[in-house]
Amino acid sequence: MSSSKLPKNIDSPIDNHERVYERPADFPKVPKAARLRNLIRSQELTFLMEAHNGLSARIVEEAGFEAIWASGLSISAALGVRDSNEASWTQVLEVLEFMSDASSIPILVDGDTGYGNFNNMRRLVRKLEQRGIGGVCIEDKQFPKTNSFINGTAQPLADIDEFCGRIKAGKDSQRYDEFVVVARVEAFIAGWGLSEALKRAEAYRMAGADAILIHSAKRHPSEILAFKREWGDRLPVVIVPTKYYTTSTDVFREFGFSAVIWANHMMRSCITAMQDTAKLIFQEQTLISVEDRIASIAEVFRLQGAEELEEAEKRYLPQNAKVTRAIILGAAHGPEMGLLTDSRPKCMLDVAGAPVLAHILETYRAASVKDITVIRGWKKEAIDLEGVQYCDNDDEREPSEAYSLFKGSSALEGTCIISYGDVLFKKYIPQELMEVDADFAVIVDTNWKDSRNRDRYAEYVTCSKPYSRHSNNSDIVLMKVSEDIPPKSIDGEWMGFLKTSPTGTAFLRELLLKLCENGPQQTPLQMVDVLSEIIAAGKTIRVVYTAGNWLDIDRVEDVLAGSSFR
Ligand code: SPV
Ligand code: MG
User: Which residues contact 111 (CB under 8 A, 6 or more apart)?
Assistant: First the structure.
């Protein structure tokens, strides 16, 4: 061991990412390099499967392989370039980082020639260790290399001493003992014989290599078997049977090889699959034939670990941002609108070219409230907007708001904002409500005198304190809500929004059950009655004061006013 290496008790950066990312409880604790070393040294034949990006690395692991071959040929092919060092080594390093993050089994990197001389090799080894790579294999050729199966005999081999320098430099610069350096002998590829191969392997062993990769481009395994017979067990021997693939794996076992690399089969299978798919879609100009032959989108999400992210969101995202759902009371007929609401509910009245409800949905969505339930009643079939859930109050009498909400109890879960289907508003209103940390909260308009001047129906409130420009108004609670409050006691107008926390929502569900389980009542219960019941039950309803910026569509003039409101 070189003195430049750190003592063992210092945390290895080899598995840096294993600490950075959330890992399953059964994630192996042994560093990847140590596992690779053990696999290569073990008496059992090990199989390394090629991968060329994060996705293929994950698939290789899921198939059951214990180690990955990060193939230079496959990575360059996937990048759309030749296996001739056209991709820079740092570009390859980027790919390796994704592969390492996406898998928990060790990776042996095809380091080509080490990307230069001994000095490049030193830096390569350090960078690989930092990315949690288990080991590197370098071949005794010169930079830039050419793939061994392209005119191999024309390829010059590296000078033995110079290549030994690369091995030594790599071994000396690794910070941890476990990192594996495999020396790849290309003598057979270059047309040299067994003695040259043995001479080189021995020199590389002496230089500190942990294993020898003996490569051959023959269709039969004669070269590698002859090598192994002579070499014995001086160091573990790794093979790549791409060309002599018909040889039984038992032969490799019998000869005592350490590891077999299936070097490019993930990349080649992708090519076939992609060619077929592209051809079919091009010819048929439809996806119909292809859909059932390819991985589902759900499978893509599974491989990406989407589920883990959902779990993490539950742990790390603020509650409010997680699931605020809106429940919109859209059952009202609105007979005061005359003919306009004969065949549709009030919430479907057209304002500026779209139904009131469409504007409301857009505003909620702009405030990131995406889970929306609309409670329908009058002419429910006229409500046909997409992307929302519907609950129905089928009671034929002019519906009670409380009863409508009761019919939407299935949507009363978690954090909710309940509001009316005939109130236009700006997105800051739900946004402000979402920020309030209280079981119940309402928005109150301090411009209440405007509505009195206009002589329209309004639900007034008395609060624990009037709005004050000089305080932050953060501790104000609702005392009373009614249309009959003497002007001197009015602090504002309730805008029809009630926000409930998960606890508040659960309470509200129970309350509605109590109030409505016997069906609609003689005197229909409205939302103001629900608020009064919450107060009567001793619960606190927080008040958020605002001024204007909403429109209650109560009269025909309001429909016109709605156009300018937007
Ligand atoms: C690779 O997979 O890139 C290899 C093996 O180096 S071979 O293509 O056979 O040279
Ligand atoms: Mg290669």
Answer: 72, 121, 124, 128, 136, 137, 138
Count the neighbouring beta carbons within 10 Å of the beta carbon of residue 493. 24
Reported pTM: 0.66
Q: Whose CA is nearest to atom 10 of ligand 1?
A: 148
319 pLDDT higher than 80 = no
CA 238–ligand 2 middle distance (angstroms):
14
Tokens of 470: 């000089």
Total residue length of the chain: 566
Residue type, 534: I
Average pLDDT over residues 516-529: 81
Strand pairing report for 324-330 and 259-262: unpaired
Residue nearest to atom 5 of ligand 1 (CA): 263
Per-residue pLDDT at 362: 93
95 lines ligand 1 (CB under 6 A): no
Lowest average pLDDT, out of 297-306, 388-397, 450-459, 476-485, goes to 450-459
CA 28 / ligand 1 centre spacing (Å): 29
Atom index in ligand 1 nearest the CA of residue 83 equals 3
Closest atom, ligand 1, to C-alpha of 242: 9
Please tell me if the CB atom of residue 113 comes closer than 6 angstroms to any atom of ligand 1: no
- Probe ligand 1: pick from 60, 81, 110, max atoms within 8 Å of CB? 110
CA torsion sign, 32 to 35 to 39 to 40?
positive
Please give the DSSP secondary-structure letter assigned to residue 175.
Answer: S
Which two structure tokens, joined as six digits, stand for 194?
A: 């067994």
- CA nearest to 348, candidates 359, 356, 338: 356
Catalytic residue chosen out of the listed positions 11, 15, 26, 83: 83
Contact predicate 314/324, CB 8 Å: no
Q: Do the Cβ atoms of 213 and 236 come closer than 8 Å?
A: no
In the prediction, which pLDDT does 150 show? 95
What average pLDDT does this structure show over 113-119?
Answer: 98
Between CA 351 and CA 344 the distance in angstroms is 14
Active site residue 161: no
Ligand 1 center from residue 18 Cα (angstroms):
28
- Beta strands at 237-239 and 46-51: parallel, antiparallel or unpaired: unpaired
Q: At what angle do helices 54-63 and 265-284 cross, to 10 degrees?
A: 110
Backbone angles phi, psi at 380, to 5 degrees: -60, -30
Query: What percent of the chain has a predicted confidence (pLDDT) above 70?
Result: 89
The residues, any chain, with a CB within 8 Å of residue 57's CB and separated by 6 or more, are: 51, 68, 98, 99, 100, 102, 103, 107
User: Which bound ligand lies closest to the C-alpha atom of 240?
Assistant: 1
- Tokens linked to 421: 């289907």
**Average pLDDT, whole number, for the chain?**
89
pLDDT for the residue 345: 84
